[in-house]
Amino acid sequence: MIILKIDNVVKRFHKKTAVDGISFEIDKGSVFGLLGPNGAGKTTLIRIITSIFNADEGTIFFNGEKLNEFHPHEIGYMPEERGLYKKMKVGEQLLYLTQLKGLSYKDAKISIVNWMKKFEMKDWWNKKIEELSKGMQQKVQFISTVAHDPKLIILDEPFTGLDPVNTELIRNEILRLRENGATIIFSTHRMEQVEEICEDIVLINEGKVILEGKVEKIKEDFKEHKYKVEFYNSVEESQLEGLDIVSFTGRELIFKSPEETESNDLLKFFIDKNINIKSFAEVLPSLNDIFIKLVTE
Questions:
Q1: Is the pLDDT of residue 279 over 80?
Q2: d(CA 227, CA 231)
Q3: CATH entry 3.30.70.100 includes domain 224-285
Q4: Which CATH number fits domain 2-219: 3.40.50.300, 3.90.1570.10, 3.30.1540.10, 2.60.40.1180?
Q5: Nearest to 144, CA basis, from 175, 177, 111
Q6: Buried (b) or exposed (e) across 254-284, using 16+ Cβ within 10 A?
Q7: pTM here?
Q8: Residue 225 in contact with residue 256, Cβ under 8 Å?
Q9: What is the pLDDT of residue 259?
Q10: Local confidence band at 17 (pLDDT 50, 70, 90 cut-offs)
Q11: Cα dist. 161→81, 85, 183 in Å?
């Protein structure tokens, strides 16, 4: 089932077209990567989805309905720039923000207390935001995004300022929210994080979609038929004559093969030369490599 459909959306600012005919769909209950370089139009598109901006052209459908004034209550948005009031206390700020999303005072407090216990933050209720580290502020902002139990959660660089322990904590909560039915839009420049948690992505550049699809399928489509081989013993380069060598260190080799060559035929090359192989694997490009290639081109 589709939770969000972007249909030929356009947004202009004076003579600049920030979003230029973008279309894509997001499946319900998925973690979806919204990617692109700085200035690509990602933030503008997110602000249209959250009704901060109106589109100049095109339509957005949320759960099968045209986006309307009631839908923002079903969306949680965590911007890259922290939007917290530094002089306010943590508890009162979270209560205020959660009630803005439609929860009663009682329900908001129950949800916030549960999240603060989960994040071991229950003693922070009366602390001011300015007294917290950047990482702790990020955890408060995450709670403000999800406490009203939104159907669609938009996270823009959610791991900024977090140490490895808290990064793993937030990552696990994102996956748990997905398992409980929420849909996550994940926007970041950290491609390794996208590969870890996203099933589908869209890549935007200069206001246009230049790539979309499932992460594994995209990596398959962009592979260059490279293979990495590790040897138990050092090998002479003369033994590898006939291979298209990319790099070689004696005990590790990366080479390219003709497109239609079977893996068994490649392995036979080494077996026939009595070369003992420790490992043999195809090298797929990373999302980071694909990102750089497409944006640069």
A1: yes
A2: 13
A3: yes
A4: 3.40.50.300
A5: 111
A6: ebebeeeeeeeebeebbeeeebeeeeeeeeb
A7: 0.87
A8: yes
A9: 77
A10: very high
A11: 12, 18, 24
